[in-house]
Design a protein that fits this description.
Blueprint (H helix, E strand, L loop, with lengths): L1 E19 L12 E6 L11 E5 L7 E4 L5 E8 L11 E8 L17 E4 L31 E2 L2 E18 L12 E6 L11 E5 L7 E17 L4 E2 L5 E8 L3 E4 L3
Antiparallel strand pairs: 1-4, 1-5, 1-6, 2-3, 2-5, 6-15, 7-9, 8-13, 9-12, 9-14, 10-11, 10-12
């Protein structure tokens, strides 16, 4: 008997933690099962390299098996060599994507995969320009955002899932008006109250020199939304690049038996 899961892309597998056995009966059925990890579907994936053999798991208990960074898209649990029932009450897999580009990590800019909006649009300065991967800071280079002269102007990045945010790096405009950013706040969280501007504050931007990029440390604040807002006055908001680093809070993949 075999259970096979597809992770949809190749991962470097960290500990499989834990595998949970059935409690009410039949705990010994799992004895001798093998965990196999790889990218092949030969024999339904059961010919992939072996991570571990499950000698036994106590009834209702969870055991952890270390796979030492084995790479694979498929995780199989198979009982070889005999006719048997296979029951799994929980399997949790941790790992990180492998291959090129580099695996997600604390230094990877996660902003480029998000969605962006801002309080208004001025001079064709669409909000997407702040996550185009280009720190060009002269407005005529078409890489900076621009709002109208709003009361409390804001720009919001939706990362699409919750991350632990390490840093936010902001590049300021060079050709004029670099002081407009003074007093802006970086806010991070999961709420859309007040367009996301009510979320906890990571930092206040006292100033950023013309054309420069400043990095603000957010110490693992959790949130799906990253806002940059200028509170308390009427102002234009222009951002020439916003880069965010952080880790996905959902760092495990869980499979639950039915």
């Amino acid at each position: 008997m075999v259970e096979n899961w597809t992770l949809l892309k190749t991962y470097k597998i960290k500990p499989l933690s834990p595998a949970t056995n059935r409690k009410d009966c039949c705990r010994e059925r799992l004895n001798g099962a093998e965990i196999r990890i790889g990218n092949s579907l030969n024999d339904h994936g059961n010919s992939n390299p072996r991570c571990a053999v499950i000698s036994s798991i106590t009834a209702g208990s969870s055991d952890t098996f270390t796979c030492n960074g084995m790479e694979g898209r498929y995780v199989n649990i198979v009982i070889p060599g005999r006719a048997e029932y296979l029951t799994l009450c929980e399997v949790e897999v941790t790992g990180q994507p492998s291959g090129n580009p580099a695996p997600a990590g604390p230094d990877l800019n996660i902003a480029k995969g998000g969605n962006v909006v801002q309080s208004s649009l001025g001079w064709n300065g669409v909000p997407e320009r702040a996550i185009d991967g280009n720190r060009a800071s002269i407005y005529g280079q078409d890489s900076c955002t621009h709002t109208q002269n709003d009361v409390k102007p804001w720009w919001r990045l939706d990362l699409l899932k919750t991350f632990k945010i390490n840093t936010v790096t902001i590049t300021n405009r060079k050709d004029c008006c670099h002081d407009r950013i003074n007093g802006a706040e970086i806010r991070i969280g999961n709420s859309l109250n007040d367009n996301g501007n009510d979320n906890p504050r990571c930092a206040v931007i006292s100033s950023i020199a013309a054309g420069s990029s400043n990095t603000f440390t957010c110490n693992g604040m959790e949130g799906r939304y990253v806002n940059i807002v200028i509170p308390g006055r009427q102002e234009y908001l222009t951002l020439c690049e916003v880069e965010v680093t952080g880790l996905n809070t959902d760092d495990s993949i869980e499979y639950v038996c039915g």
